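Work package 3, deliverable 3.1, input record:
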Amino acid sequence: MNSSTSSFKTECKVILFVLLSLVLVELYARHLSRGMWDPRQLRALPEQTAQLQGAQPKGVLFLGNSLFRDGLDPEILESTLEKPGRPVLRLAASGTTITDWYYYFRTYFSRKERVPELVVVGFARRHLDDQNRLVPGRLGAYSCEMCDTPEVFSEDITDFGGRVEFFQGMALVSVAHRDWLRHRYLMRVADNYPETQQRVHDDLQLRTQKAVPEAPTYTRLRRFIQTVRESRARLVFVAMPTKHPYAINSEILIAAREAGVPILDCREVPGISRADFKDNVHLTPDGARVFSRYLAKRLEPDAARLAEGR
Amino acid sequence: MIFSTYVFWCFFAIVVSLYFMLSHRWQNRMLLVASWVFYGWWDVRFLLMMFGTTVVDYYLAQRIEDSADRRVQKRWLMVSVVMNLGLLAFFKYCNFFIENTHAMLQAIGFQPNPWTLQVILPVGISFYTFQEMSYCIDVYRGELKASRKFSDFALFVAFFPQLVAGPIERATKLLPQVQRPRVLKEGTFTAGLYLVMLGLFKKIIIADNMAQIADWVFTSDVNTLTGPECLLGIYAFAFQIYGDFSGYSCIAQGVAKWLGFELMDNFRMPYFATSPSDFWRRWHISLSQWLRDYLYIPLGGNRGSSWKTYRNLILTMLLGGLWHGAAWTFVLWGLFHGVLLAAWRWVNEPEPGQKLEPEEQPSLLYRLPMMVLMFHLVCVGWLLFRAESASQAWTMASLLFTNFDVTPFVSVYARVMAFFITPLLLLEFWIYMQDDLLALTRAYWLRRAAVYSYCAAMLLCFAPEIAHEFIYFQF
């Protein structure tokens, strides 16, 4: 055996070792993600949507991201909205935006027997813009079925790298949950990482917007509204409170008005002050209670209409 | 097409699979086409411009060689230098010149109409023009025979691993590798894998993760920052630019190795440098050597009086700073390093009549504090380099000594930074002690496998949300 063959064999051993290590990382990621809020609720989706199947009266779905996760008090909502037999579902995976919500709805809630009566979507700032960052791995893992791939690739993930990651996400939890795993691990490195990171992220986003004043577009929002309307669910948008005021783009108002979708303006909620935010956008538990009571009251007419079967 | 994307690796997989099926002549042709595709991927107009300069320099070098008259040779060389520098000046410095002239005219009471040109800077223009220029100069100096085969010369200019961000290869080293059939030596695959793995780790894990910290600090309103925040931002940028640029160079070297080419080392653990001259022997080596050979030595180098040597050092570094881009902060950065080099030379100047002894390696105990000191001096340079303006750099520098508030940002991100940086520093220190950049490829396979596994796991789980382009693409 000559030395170059032996060198090649050694390198093969190295590569095998690396691959084995990556398998272990994937197994660890799967184990870790079992205890994490975001993956857990996404994994529980098929089970949860089964509750909607044939439910009478039909359910209410709260769809949003970490603003809804931290901003809604389930007990208050359930006591207000959950009449006997009406399921109230909350899907609030952090970092998700309009594209994720569109595919979540399409994949899990648009089938006739599972359509909720009322869909409440919480947003702030730019969550409804087309310009939001997509996480292809997560879309691949949870938001889409294989049959959605042509639409995803033609409308949403148009770059080659994103498409590769989309397929990786279908197979690998470590790719699908990368942002959440990274977040969780860095929390162990520094306790206040989530709040500080959120602040840095928000600041940078605001500064980039100032530097590049790109006009936002809302094709995905219109597509989402159309899909929900076609499923005959009633749709309500909620403009969430944040520490610093923000404007709602007039294009959002136009798209909603054209489709007859109400926007509940909760940017200013009586009783919520700056002290009720743990960072720039997320409410504290006290703030969440005040907000949930306020939102439940604003949603009462819709809930009553549902109760009457109108 | 960026090294850290899937598109590049698919492209490379196609190139490699074709490459090893072809004869030497066809390998070169295929590599040339691949390199043009690689470059044209950004903007096909850039490709046309590079093709134009390649054709001109190819013929000019032949004219230089064919002419027996030294004055005629010089004239052709000047044509090449003027064309290359003219292109650089137009694309990089045109608006800088207009803006500053405008400001100057306003300062003396004129009110000229403000206008600027909408010039897009072609990717990597500074790298390939320097490479073409050095080729013509080497032919003029008689150190190199002019290439008589256009495809060979064009491949030397456009060779895709090092085209857009170096290393700036010399024709004397790279052209013969193009012209002769390449043989894969033993250990080539091992070394290539190591360089690619390390390069991806440096770029994606170190540089892109540090970018968020540095960007936040350097884009904040400077009046809202504290001293420790500024310090953390400067440290983050120091590692961002190091990870970014040395990562690119590593991948370029690794990819080239797999194709049978040897590119020069562009970085040698620069943050372990113990003096300014040591730093420039370790940082962006290909540019340092280019500036030494084609600017510093022709200016007189250290052959004249001490003052002339200091002047030459400062002038060389000043132009080196300007090479990075058209901004006063780059000029200040170059000036700062020039002054550092001159000051170091002044401190170590041999007494008249005293012979310059070859430098002995001092003990590690002496080197460690020197490394820390030199790293912080380099950081002062990075503050000038990254700052949006000289006044921002000055305010941030003054905050370091006047405001000592440790904010939550500092306590969180100092730890996050240590989490990412420490393993790299430990690996580099081990390599430094071995005095061999490829020491890991010669280590026991399990040690290498452990390092690669760590890098791969980090790449899988800790790639940041937003990937950044390589910083040096803009230069």
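The interface with chain B takes residues 3-4, 7-8, 10-11, 13-15, 17-18, 21-22, 25, 29, 133, 160-161, 164, 172, 174-175, 178-179, 181-182, 185-186, 189-193, 195-197, 199-200, 203-204, 207 of chain A (CB under 8 Å).
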